[in-house]
Design a protein that fits this description.
This protein is α+β, with helices and mostly antiparallel strands. About 50% of the residues lie in helices and about 15% in strands. It is built from 20 helices and 19 strands. It has helices spanning about 1-25, 50-55, 65-75, 85-100, 145-160, 175-180, 195-205, 210-225, 230-250, 300-310, 330-340, 355-380, 385-395, 445-465, 480-490, 525-555, 565-575, 580, 585-595, 595-650, and strands at about 30-35, 40-50, 75-80, 110, 115-120, 125-130, 140, 260-270, 270-280, 285-295, 320-325, 345-350, 400-410, 415-425, 425-430, 435, 470-475, 500, 505-510. Strands 13, 14, 15, 16, 17, 18 and 19 form a seven-stranded mixed β-sheet that branches. Strands 4-10-9-8-11-12 form a six-stranded mixed β-sheet. The chain is extended and about 95 Å long.
Length: about 650
């Protein structure tokens, strides 16, 4: 087996070197390059201003796992030179559409919003659907709030006695809906066609924003039901009015003029990218197109690639498109003009000074939609690419399915808290979050000791309870904090991989190393570690703030003699802390509280006594944990000595049968 693996690695290295040599021989001019697999199929198409520079970049430095997969699967590189970058853009676009390579953008709609459909029948019915069929039916929407749409449809059926049956059949006797007054039985010719058509047109006008009379009719019926003590019906009609208001507000963006425009934003996590397009037509937000894809392109090239795949018909291109970057947009405008003969203005939101507030709100909304889609995708699939890359770059013995992260938060040494958060399959596992109120560092700053206490308490407990250990521990800090935690784990006899992520340069530190691990900015592994680190920081900070608020709510001043609520307020305002009060002269206290000198003396004496008690308690706690840590280390050393002695005895003892 080892020989097979060795031969496989040698072959892979040889193929990579062949590809690298091809890249080195590429010309230094614009063009398109194609990666082919062993079967000759095109798996990726890209463009470049400088083919040589771009192709050689695939073989320099450390790359994310998706790029490494591309290089490993490729067996050949071809390139086509062009006169300029625009020609390369056109050729790339055509080749992507022709071959649909695996590693290029392939648009997949993440989710379609529901619409209200009025069927194209002699006796139409209405219902909610996500599927649009071009059969003459009328569609209204889409509506992001499906619940509001359902409530609105129920209200319409309360007012208009329309048919409910999916298949229309002529009958001799009507169904139950007729007998309860919810349908006028067109199947039995109990209603005139003109009356039924009038109902449908009223509903259409209501959905087109022209239905003030219908809205008034709903309100009148609601009041009538309430006066008749039919409160259940009145409540349904009231909910229908609210749903109508929600639906109308969903489809209108306040402040937009009647121009047509699109807003395009994206969010990226490693190779995963989601795009959101908000479509404004005639001043109304008609819907949101959400697309998810996987791409290896650089950030500056992703948007042009998406737009060229999204806009394939001239009818779909609005006069205005608002984006978040100018990179590649000049090429897109030229492409729209020469390919579709359309003059489309592509504008960076920040550059439109006149309408900045309006456009900024719309593009932020689009970006938030894209971000939520990425979060949903990562949660659905589990962040396995990141875990696999993390296992490889840190040489972990197993896949880091369970990662526990630690961070320390305090306010100038006060209220020290350690946060413990847990990630499972690359996603937050909030039921296993914990906070530890630190005892040995309450009152002074020592991040190393704080980490020692937090991890000692956590993993001593897991040992005692026989529970499963994490696959990786992530420390928010550098080599000092990592080594401190490593010492605790060794004293407990645990062998859990540790890593520290330093905020400044996003360096990854392993125990007792002089050089950190540095990953590319777009690395999936780095992204996962950043998510864990940021979550530990958020959780620790929020808990620390709660403690500070609680401490400030009940101050130590209230326990002093001669101090009530009003004097407590004056002491908090003037001295803030007990330490500051203890250091204050007796005369200042008397002047602050407007009391006699003997009362001020009693207050100061009691404050000094209380302060001394607090400091003594802190010192006792600190010494107890330090002593516990020393005991653990001694116990671990004794165990190691005992193990060595056992091994020595077993070596010295003769085997059975020996003399």
């Amino acid at each position: 087996m080892s020989d097979l693996l060795s031969r496989s690695e040698t072959l892979q290295s040889s193929q990579r070197e062949i590809l690298h040599q091809t890249a080195l021989k590429a010309p230094s001019q614009s063009g398109v390059y194609l990666w082919r697999n062993g079967e000759g199929a095109i798996i990726y198409v890209g463009k470049a201003k400088n083919l040589k520079n771009r192709l050689t970049s695939y073989f320099s430095g450390s790359k994310d796992i998706k790029t490494r997969l591309l290089v490993n699967h490729a067996r050949n590189i071809e390139y086509i030179t062009t006169s300029n970058e625009y020609e390369a853009f056109l050729l790339e676009n055509n080749l992507i559409k022709q071959h649909t390579p695996r590693y290029n953008i392939n648009l997949k709609d993440g989710k379609s919003y529901p619409v209200l459909r009025i069927t194209h029948e002699t006796w139409p019915r209405l219902f909610r659907t996500r599927r649009v069929v071009q059969d003459g039916s009328r569609y209204f929407g889409p509506f992001p709030d499906a619940t509001a749409l359902d409530t609105f449809i129920e209200a319409l059926y309360e007012i208009y006695p329309l048919r409910h049956c999916k298949q229309f059949h002529k009958k001799d006797s009507p169904c139950l809906y007729y007998h309860i007054g919810r349908c006028l039985a067109p199947c039995c010719k109990q209603i005139a066609k003109s009356t039924y058509t009038e109902f449908i047109e009223e509903i259409a006008q209501l959905l087109e924003g022209k239905g003030e009379e219908t809205s008034k009719k709903i309100e009148a019926l609601m009041k009538e039901a309430a006066q008749s003590l039919n409160f259940e019906k009145a409540a349904r009609l009231r909910d229908g009015l609210k749903a109508l208001s929600v639906l109308q507000n969903q489809n209108i963006v306040e402040g937009f003029d009647g121009d047509d425009r699109d807003y395009i934003a994206s969010w990226r996590e490693g190779e995963l990218v989601s795009f959101t397009v908000l479509k404004i037509r005639g001043g109304k937000l008609l819907g949101r197109d959400n697309y998810r894809t996987i791409t290896l392109n650089e950030d500056m090239e992703v948007l042009p690639e998406f737009m060229s795949a999204y806009y394939t018909e001239p009818e779909t291109i609005p006069p205005h498109i608002y984006v978040m970057t100018r990179e590649g947009m000049e090429l897109m405008q030229r492409w729209f003009s020469e390919t579709f003969h359309i003059d489309c203005a592509i504008t960076l939101v920040a550059e439109d000074i006149a309408g900045f507030k309006m456009h900024s709100a719309a593009i932020s909304m689009a970006q938030q939609n894209a971000k939520e889609d990425i979060v949903r995708r990562v949660r659905e699939r589990g962040d396995f690419p990141a875990m696999e890359e993390l296992q490889k770059v840190l040489a972990l013995p197993r896949l880091p399915v369970r990662i526990e992260g630690f961070d320390i938060a305090h306010i100038s040494g006060k209220f020290p808290v350690a946060s413990l958060i847990s990630f499972y399959n690359g996603n937050p596992d909030k039921k296993n979050y914990r906070t530890l109120h630190l005892k040995t560092t309450d009152g002074y700053i020592d991040d190393f000791q704080s980490m020692r206490e937090a991890t000692a308490r956590r993993y001593t407990r897991l040992l005692n309870e026989g529970k499963e250990m994490p696959d990786l521990i992530l420390i928010d800090g550098g080599i000092g904090q990592v080594n401190a935690v490593d010492g605790i784990l060794k004293s407990l006899g645990l062998d859990i991989p540790i890593a520290g992520l330093a905020k400044r340069d996003e360096e990854i530190w392993r125990p007792h190393t002089s050089t950190p691990v540095c990953l590319p900015r777009r690395s999936d592994a780095l992204r996962l570690l950043q998510r864990v680190r940021d979550e530990t920081h958020r959780f620790a900070t929020s808990k620390n703030q709660k403690l500070r608020t609680k401490e400030n709510t009940v101050s130590p001043f209230i326990s002093l003699p001669h101090v009530g609520k009003e004097r407590e307020r004056l002491l908090v305002k003037t001295y803030s802390t007990l330490a500051a009060l203890v250091a204050a002269p007796e005369a200042d206290i008397a002047q602050t509280l407007h009391v006699r000198a003997d009362i001020a003396a009693d207050i100061l004496l009691a404050a000094k006594k209380l302060f001394k008690e607090q400091e003594t308690a802190k010192e006792i706690k600190r010494r107890s944990l330090v002593h516990a840590g020393t005991t653990w280390q001694k116990a671990a050393q004794h165990q190691r000595n005992a193990d060595l002695a056992t091994e020595a005895i077993s070596v010295a003892m003769p085997e059975p049968g020996e003399v």
